[in-house]
Amino acid sequence: MKKTLKFLFTFILIISLQQPHTFAAEIKKINLDDAIQLSLSNNLDLQSARIDVELAKNGVKIANRLQNPEFNVFYNYGRAGRSEPQQIGISETLELAKRAPRKNLAKSELYKKELDVKLAEFTLEMDVRETYVDLVGAKTVLNDLLAQDMLLCELADIAQKRYEAGKTSQAEVIQAQIALNRLSASIHSARTAVNAARNDFNKALNIKEESDIIYDSREDYLPGETVFISLKTPDFNKKLPPFELVAQKALEKRLDILAVKQEVDIARKNLAVVTRQRIPDIELFGGYSYLPHTHADSGRFEPGAYAGANLSNIPIFYTYKPEIKNAKLQVEQAQINYESAKNKALKELNTAYEKLVTSQTNLLFYKNKLLKDSAELIKISQKNYKEGKTDLTSVVLMQQSFREILTGYNTTLTDYYTDWIDFLREVNQEDFNLFDENL
Predict the structure, then answer these.
(1) What fold characterizes domain 32-63+95-280+315-427?
(2) Hey, which of 134, 222, 233, 423 has its CA 20 to 30 A from 334?
(3) Distance between CA atoms of residues 146 and 183, nearest Å
(4) Count of CB atoms situated within 10 Å of the CB of 14
(5) What's the sign of the alpha-carbon dihedral 233, 239, 243, 249?
């Protein structure tokens, strides 16, 4: 009986190991516009950044607050209570020339948070665009390799038929199979690259809802005019305008520079808040007072009132000099950071523009020279081998050379798309028109 149970347990264990539980997620294809809107509506990091704006709005209300009053009771005991009135009243502290600067500072900080959210939205859109393009680029490489695999399969089939007809040796059949196996390894790597790019795309979306859905790009190829339109990228056949014409307009609305400039405004308003700390506060108090008839000289209940004022926080022993000095240094520091940001932005924009020009030049060279000639040559060489006009080694070498050229073209094409996105990052404008006549 024990042996039977042990056998059944072992059998069940083996079956369970051979039948692993897998989670089948739904693959949902979306275009770039839908992906951007989806991320802007549901991205978790962006939702967190938008809460900062709400916090800053509450900060404006907090800065504009009035001090709460105090309720006071003065009751005299003993001999003092026989001649001094009892008092019940309130007191209120009035801040002189402090609320307005504090509120202005809070408003300036609110505007900075709004700029930060706009910058986060822009950065998110660029991240989604870049990972989307990388995914389409990886799928392009895979699909091109699969197309080449079909050509090599035809080539191996031709070699097999030629061998069976006695027109070639078995070595060519083996050579064709080796070339096919080497291409299979490249296809496996390309599939892994597609999966990694898809994961990066979903990571950029960062959506909590519908966690069982994996989003995929609608396009499977980068080349084509329709793809240029859908991927919001200018046609690489158009000549780019000179850098000097685009630089000024490109830097006008950079969100990151506006955010750094706002830091200067925040520092100046903070200086006003700190400086106003030297102004004393006024404390007003008043209320109702009375003497019981047993304590009054007249023998009657004597009602009355009291009022008073008080200056508090008079800057005699401490004049806030360190705070004011630090606030002035912060203004100076913010101004330096602003100038530094402008200088760096221009240089970074220049670098991004040069990369875009280079990738466009390389892409045109691949398209107009290497790719077209190589594609025609590979068809001719395969036809010649089928007709026995050339040997297999030449065809295989031609296939490998064509594959390298095609891979280089796809890489350069992907670089052109991503370099355009990097250029937009430096411009800080998602709809920047590089060919605007008003540049």
Answers:
(1) Outer membrane efflux proteins (OEP) (1.20.1600)
(2) 423
(3) 9
(4) 10
(5) negative
> How far is 207 from 213, CA to CA, in rounded Å?
10
Report the C-alpha gap between 197 and 134 in whole angstroms. Answer: 6
User: Which tokens is 42 given?
Assistant: 């549901």
C-alpha span between 353 and 361 (Å, rounded): 12
Q: How is the chain split into domains, by residue range?
A: 32-63+95-280+315-427
Rounded to whole angstroms, the Cα distance separating 109 from 258 reads 13
* pLDDT tens sequence across 219-273: 888 765 555 556 677 777 788 888 887 787 777 778 888 899 999 999 999 999 9
Residue 21, classed as helix, strand or coil, is coil
**What H or E segment, with its residue span, contains residue 424?**
helix 392-427
Whether pTM exceeds 0.70: yes
CA distance 202 to 334: 37
Pairing of strands 26-30, 70-74: unpaired
How large is the C-alpha radius of gyration of the chain? 38
